[in-house]
Amino acid sequence: MSRILAIPGSLRAESFNARLLKALPPLAPDGMEFEFFGGIGELPLYNEDFDTDPALPAVARWRAALRQADGLVIATPEYNQSIPGVLKNAIDWASRPHGRGPLTGKAISVMVATLGRAKGFRGLTDTSRILTGLGNLVIAEPEVVVPSAPSALTTGPDGEPCLTDPVAKTLITIQLEALADVIKTQAAGSAREAVERNRSLMDYLHFFPIITKALEDGAGTSAAAERLTAAGIDADTAADWVERALRH
């Protein structure tokens, strides 16, 4: 049994994307169980001053739900040719604490329900790009954009949303099968583990030119180390890197 967190990118009570998520279970492979998460609107705007330990209750619920999920399905509208602000804010909270956020190494499907017939792909692409950049494995194909959502998403005899568009149903079935395979093989987590094994070296290669430039511009060793710790590098490692830069 795989536990899938279903996340709508819209807060609207009658959101088509929320309805799309609730129409997924009949299209999913056996053993895929959906948990609907409608709480991203409870998250405050991300502010590092509010990113405390222990976390704010809404933040703690969000991060715990992500940690407990085997995979995610995100259905989001396209706002102004990109990702909705409320969804980006939720992703920002899920990417922290720096280097230890729960939104990494996950298998993820992204889909869009839209009113028209020619929009949605830019929002789909931007959402997928951001999630991939955080170290997740996003199912790239098939791309799922459900057009004419008011007519494609009806209400079934049981009162639950029902997807009637045959093309969208087929594409979603294929995408969810791919998601199930990625979860079964643990490919997303394995890929992330391979990166994390080399995290220290990658961080060093990223920060070394920055440290060197700061020292050349007259920054003291303490100031350079403080910049590194502010970026999430532990104090001992920061001090070591500054010393290496001085010897370079």
What do you see in this structure?
This is NAD(P)H-dependent oxidoreductase. Pfam families: FMN_red. One of its GO terms (cellular component) is cytosol. GO terms for molecular function: FMN binding; oxidoreductase activity. The protein has helices at 16-22, 57-68, 85-94, 121-133, 149-152, 166-185, 187-196, 199-216, 221-230, 235-247, and strands at 2-8, 32-36, 71-75, 107-113, 137-138, 144-146, 153-155, 161-163. With 248 residues, the chain is α/β, with parallel strands linked by helices. The strands form two sheets. Strands 1, 2, 3, 4, 5 and 6 form a six-stranded parallel beta sheet that branches. It folds into two domains: 2-196, 3-Layer(aba) Sandwich (Rossmann fold), CATH 3.40.50; 199-247. It has ten helices and eight strands.
CATH topology of the largest domain: Rossmann fold
- Residues in β-strands, percent: 5-15%
CATH architecture group name of the largest domain: 3-Layer(aba) Sandwich
Mean pLDDT: 91
What is the global morphology? elongated
Uncertain residue segments:
none
Regarding CATH, which class of the largest domain? Alpha Beta
Q: In DSSP terms, counting alpha (H) and pi (I) runs of 4 or more, how many helices?
A: 10
Give me the strand/helix succession: EHEHEHEHEEHEEHHHHH
N-to-C span: 53 Å
Pfam families: FMN_red
Organism: Streptomyces sp. NBC_00003
Protein name: NAD(P)H-dependent oxidoreductase
GO cellular component, one term: cytosol
